[in-house]
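Let's study a protein:

===
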Amino acid sequence: MGRKRLAITRIEDKSARQVTFCKRRNGLLNKAKALSVLCDSDVGVIIYSSTGKAYNYCSNNSLPRTIRRYFNYVESESSSGIGENGVQVDYSKYSEYITKDELLQMVERDLEDPSDDQHSIVDLALLESQIETALMQTRRAKINVHLDVISALQDEETTLEKQNNLFEQKLATKKVKKPSFDLNIVPDGYTTE
């Protein structure tokens, strides 16, 4: 008897959802490790839980480098205009996108407008693609900020380690003489009785 086929829908029970998340997260990370080892490929995985906690795996121990490599690849693909399978891709349609704030205002206005209950499929598809593009741009900017912060913190860590080593060397070269006190000496004017 085989396993029961699980419907891919949101699990309503919070504890069951958390258990499933942990198991599937670990399974995904194990698959990423196996892919990395078996195929000798660079693999990077980032997972955010519903509580906002981040989990990651990187086969080359440098997730920021892997993410930068990915963005460089995407940018080079978009600048060449050639997508997968050598097909020419028209990136000029992305030039018409407005800022994310204007897009959010437009979405809010369009979806809350009671006079126009019927949105065409084309309008909704265009709106969805604009939202997805704005979301990708926002995520890319967020990742770039995180990468810059990580790089700055790594530089600061290196600087602090160098300073610490320098202080340890100075401390080792200087033999600090500890002051000694004779507790048997009685100051003038005091008696021991």
Summary: Helices lie at 14-39, 63-80, 100-112, 121-173. The longest helix spans residues 121-173. The chain has four helices and two strands. Strands lie at 44-48, 54-58.
